[in-house]
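A note on notation is needed here, since sequence and fold are reported together in a single record. The reader may check this reading against the record printed directly beneath this paragraph.
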Amino acid sequence: MRVTQNMMSNMFVSNLRRQTEAMAQRQEQIATQKRINRPSDDPGGMGRVLAGRSELSAIEQYAYNIVQGKARLEASEEVLSLVDGLIAQAQSIAEANGGAGKTASERELAAEQVKEIYDQVLQLGNSKFGGRYLFAGDQNDSAPFTRDDDYAATYHGDGGSFKLSISDHAVVTIDADGRNYFQDAADGGVNIFDELRALIDGLENSDVAVGSTQISATVDSLEEARVQIMNKRTEAAPKLYRLEATERYLSNVKTSVQDRIAGAEDADTAQAVIELKNLETAYESTLEAASRIIQPSLVNFLS
């Protein structure tokens, strides 16, 4: 087959176009430091990159959930520690005022102290985390505990719990039912508000002997209340450990996924520079060859 001048011109133009496109691609890779800048650069590689990014997004969501869970447990621990301290104060008042040696005025003053403790415990029972009540179950947009003028407390929440998704098919549940913390009498525990009210009633009783009996009866109950609070605090320890262990695991997995994405997506900049130089040399060689073979007018046009 005879090779015409027109065929040779088309061949040179095609080669120059491919070389120009290849140089532009290497220049883009050097500028972005990415080997894949669009799906057409490497469809298979882009699929791996997108899968990795999806996995990374899930890991970051799980990590965020864990941070929230840890913060919630720590907030709950702080609240319960304060509640325990207040119950201990009430218990001390009961022990100090259970005998017959206290005057009516002294007991009245002690009753006012216990009322203040009662309201502080109620306030702590209505603590918030992230704008939501900690101990209201699923009804966490309104205060779970209120009291009337006779110091009778009412729970307005429900039995809901706080659930954290920390990995595929793994959920950590944190008890958010305030009754299990403060009013566990239904399950054989202690209604802390009732015991504090009983202590107030005993301190305000005008019959000193009957009042002393009422006061003394609250000492052991308040000790049981402290145990109840301690048990709820203890429940948090294994959950916190699990969250921290999962957090460390996800951190390692995240690094692995990021490395995998980088291996598929990132450019070898040094190699790209070498390839660009080689392409530029080949491009100049093609132009030089074309100038010797093709008509000058065409060479000038191509240049």
Q: What stands out?
A: The longest strand covers residues 161-167. Helices lie at 5-32, 43-97, 104-125, 179-182, 192-204, 208-265, 269-293, 296-302.
